[in-house]
Write a structure and sequence with these properties.
Helices cover 33% and strands 23% of the residues. The protein is of the alpha/beta class and 454 residues long. It has 2 domains: 288 residues, Alanine racemase (TIM Barrel, Alpha-Beta Barrel); 120 residues, Lyase, Ornithine Decarboxylase, Chain A, domain 1, CATH 2.40.37. Helix 8 packs parallel to helix 9 and helix 10 packs parallel to helix 11. The protein binds ligand LLP.
Length: 454
């Protein structure tokens, strides 16, 4: 026990010193001079030279060269989204903590790092992945939910910022690290917001966060353990359109924050909505930036200290950058529909079946000709509709269909259901395609399975 305490104390001291070092070294306006963000050309998927291209790279050529299904990410689009967010909050000390879970390929993480963002991680594995990609511990916000205390201890030992979302865990944390390791507290603001019930997480019946109504209890715990609370956090949901929702969350957080001394940042989570179809509205990031920054500055004045404002966007940064390219295996007419059966399905993109999400689809093999109404379905042995009743240029076997908005929660939620292989991933950067993940092989399906004598 004594040995444990000593190791624990040394660890805590190391963690605090590391944090202090980074706080001094941090360059708040890194993004202004960031070469990655200064050279953006903003050319996303477009028709040029009779082909659908991204940064001059033909998508049908990629499909031929690397096979399908294939995830393709437009690096320029990701960088432009980072810049949009930075610009919208240029009058306050913004820190972007990219939500790793949206798309966790290490090259995407490295790109974020180059663009000057930090990261939000929700598992110890994501924490390790971010560190592997080059993030310093102080750049990582760890927001676990229902994890064991062992995992939190591991994260503390790695030196990342811990965001705690329930009172028993806060007490555990106090027992081990009170008056030492800085901590953030995730509050549940009781706001019902988000694109659908499955991705609304800030309401009263959600498992996430400590109820705003339990603040008195939180203060008792903070005092009893002398907790070093340096941040407060809310995340109300995903696909939030309205600037007012962010403002409402902000006001709740400001009220709560006035009761805490020594805060360094307020974290408003993620949740900005992107456009999924033509004419669809997305969160007006400029409006959110203006309104929230103004309110934040007023709060800081009243609080008496210039805090950092953190956001943890996932979809906003990567959704529109991603395309899932699939090949048509069969065109099949039934009395009610014409189905286009492709070489992918809910195993690679679960969003349509899980959230009724709308993903635009384009037949990139046909630039002209008549349009017909089709329902795009996968090859999985259960209903897996990708896009119902869509107008596409006449589809034939072997055509390539691009499924748009597949950057966020596409590959990262993919599985081997039906013992299918996960796709390869390509990142296009500076007009060049890079293979950033190989297609799985049959050996991957067998890996970790142990054959016993029967
Ligand atoms: N911060 C926290 C604490 C979160 O739980 C999430 C998402 C984010 C940030 C990023 O949210 P975003 O900016 O991406 O909306 N799989 C669902 C979305 C689940 C989001 C879970 N949490 C989908 O495909 O719509």
């Amino acid at each position: 026990m004594r040995k444990f305490c000593r190791v624990g104390f040394l660890n805590v001291r190391r963690i605090i010193l590391t944090r202090l070092f980074w706080q001094v070294c941090e360059q708040p306006f890194l993004f202004l001079f960031n070469p990655y963000l200064c050279r953006l050309k903003f050319n996303f998927m477009e028709i040029r030279d009779n082909q659908y291209q991204i940064q001059g790279v033909s998508l049908t050529r990629l499909a031929k060269e690397y096979g399908t299904p294939l995830y393709v990410y437009d690096g320029e689009k990701i960088l432009s989204q980072v810049k949009k967010l930075q610009d919208a909050f240029s009058s306050v000390k913004l820190r972007i903590k990219y939500a790793t879970k949206a798309l966790s390929n290490i090259n995407i993480l490295k790109l974020m790092k180059k663009a000057g963002t930090g990261v939000d991680a929700v598992s110890i594995e994501e924490v390790k992945l971010c560190m592997h990609a080059g993030f310093e511990p102080h750049e990582i916000m760890y927001t676990p939910n229902s994890v064991s205390f062992d995992e939190i201890q591991e994260a503390v030992n790695l030196g990342v910022m811990i965001n705690i979302d329930n009172i028993p865990m806060l007490e555990h944390f106090g027992t081990y690290y009170g008056n030492g390791v800085p901590v953030c507290i995730r509050l549940n603001p009781h706001i019902l917001a988000g694109g659908n019930a499955k991705i609304s997480v800030g309401h009263i019946d959600s498992k996430f966060g400590i109820s705003i109504l339990q603040l008195k209890h939180v203060h008792k715990v903070v005092e009893a353990y002398d907790l070093n609370v340096i941040g407060l956090h809310v995340h109300t949901g995903s696909d939030i359109l309205d600037a007012e929702v962010f403002l409402k969350g902000a006001e709740i957080l400001f009220d709560a924050a006035m009761e805490f001394k020594g805060l360094k940042f307020l974290d408003f989570g993620g949740g900005f909505k992107v456009a999924y179809k033509q004419g669809d509205i997305s969160t007006d990031i400029k409006e959110v930036g203006n309104k929230v920054s103004k309110a934040f500055k007023e709060f800081c004045e009243e609080y008496g200290s210039e805090l950092e404002i953190w956001f943890e966007p996932g979809k906003f940064l990567v959704s529109e950058s991603g395309y899932l390219l699939v090949k048509v295996n069969i065109v099949k007419s039934t009395p009610a529909s014409t189905f286009v059966g492709v070489d992918s399905g809910l195993n690679h993109l679960i969003r349509p079946m899980m959230y009724d999400a709308y993903h635009d689809v384009v037949n990139i093999s046909k630039l002209e000709g008549p349009e017909r109404v089709y329902t795009i379905v996968g090859y999985i042995c259960e209903t897996d509709t990708i896009a119902a009743d869509r107008k596409l240029r006449e589809v034939q076997e072997a055509d390539i269909i691009a499924i748009k908005n597949a950057g966020a929660y596409g590959f990262s939620m993919s599985s081997n259901y039906n013992s299918r292989l996960k796709p390869a991933e390509i990142l296009i950067l500076n007009g060049k395609p890079y293979l950033i993940r190989e297609r799985e092989t049959f050996e991957d399906i067998l890996r970790h399975q142990l054959e016993i004598e029967l």
